[in-house]
Amino acid sequence: MIAILRELGQTGIYKRSQGRIARQVTFAAIALVVAIGCWRLSETLDQVQPALRYGISAALLAVSVWIAYRIVNVPAVADLLIAVEAEMNKVSWPTRSELIRASVVVLITIFVLATILTLFDLFWSGVFRTLGIIRGGQEEQSLLPDPEPFEPPLAGGAYCDGRPRDGPGHGRWSRTNAFPTWGIL
Q: What's this model's pTM, rounded to 2 decimal places?
């Protein structure tokens, strides 16, 4: 714990000239997330006086940005970001024309596969309608018979909560409403 506090109190930059872009991008991403969080916090504190509302958010933002700055300069994290930037420099990036050609190939493949899947769906829907397994229309419903309504298997002619089967609130139970949600779902 003392080491963490000591690290937060330092102002130096570990290996200043290495991994600068990766560190800057990581810091900017952390700072952006924190800034959005602080803005949402100030919106949530709408019942508080404006000075206190914005003061809390600004103080939290300042502390969080300092912590983000220190995080990207912790030796273990900085070494990781330096290694990431070194690996990214080794990547062979495509030219603009290669990128466009590869994107066109991907888009054409997606559309061809979507067309094939649509044709399979239309074919099997037609087969199942012809066999009478599904009905046509906007909602394809099964032509199989609906399950038989059933009463809960309790002796004594009452539901499990003690209501008589023919009393108020009685209704035929079916397999779909055998477990009521009581407005929860």
A: 0.50
Distance CA 129, CA 112 (A): 26
**Do 15 and 82 form a contact (C-beta atoms < 8 A)?**
yes
Task: Tell me the residue type at 53.
Answer: R
Digits of tens for pLDDT over the chain (185 positions)? Answer: 676 666 666 767 777 777 788 888 999 999 999 999 999 988 888 888 888 888 988 999 999 998 888 888 888 888 898 899 999 889 898 999 999 999 999 999 999 999 999 999 999 999 998 888 887 655 545 555 555 555 555 555 555 555 555 544 444 444 444 555 444 54
- Give me the DSSP letters along 83-131: HHHHHHHH--PPPHHHHHHHHHHHHHHHHHHHHHHHHHHHHHHHHHHHH
Neighbours of 72 (CB within 10 A): 21
Rounded alpha-carbon distances, angstroms, from residue 44 to 33, 35, 60? 16, 14, 14
How far apart (Å, rounded) are the C-alpha atoms in residues 40 and 18?
35
Indicate the helix (H) or strand (E) that contains 71.
Answer: helix 50-71
Distance CA(174)–CA(102), nearest Å, equals 55
